[in-house]
Write a structure and sequence with these properties.
single chain, 100 residues, mainly alpha, 2 domains, 3-stranded antiparallel sheet, elongated, binds zinc ion
């Protein structure tokens, strides 16, 4: 979904900018600005990629790398049932492990 080349350009670009910010701004403002860039850039790229797809796939649950965390399934340790949510619907056990 995200163009790999664009991502690398953004990554190195933001790296260069953040290094520049370390020199321009006193600690911890440079660090905070650099962190903000590293958080905002991926979000920006993701939003742009979603817009390019016309919203398709964004609500299907499988949004690639970013969507994985939303679709976590668990496997019940008591009865091996696969389920979503906190408690196993088959046996009511809370003992579970994440299934990726
Ligand atoms: Zn169970």
């Amino acid at each position: 979904m995200i163009n790999y080349k664009t991502y690398l350009i953004f990554l190195f670009g933001s790296l260069a900018v953040s290094i520049g910010l370390q020199m321009l701004l006193p600690w911890p403002f440079g660090l905070m600005a650099a962190l903000a860039i590293f958080i905002v850039f991926p979000l920006f790229l993701r939003n742009r990629a979603l817009k390019r797809m016309g919203g398709m796939g964004s609500d299907s649950g499988g949004g690639g790398f970013f969507g994985q965390s939303q679709g976590v399934k668990y496997i019940c340790l008591a009865c091996n049932n696969r389920f979503k949510g906190g408690i196993c619907p088959r046996c009511g056990s809370k003992m579970k492990r994440a299934d990726f």
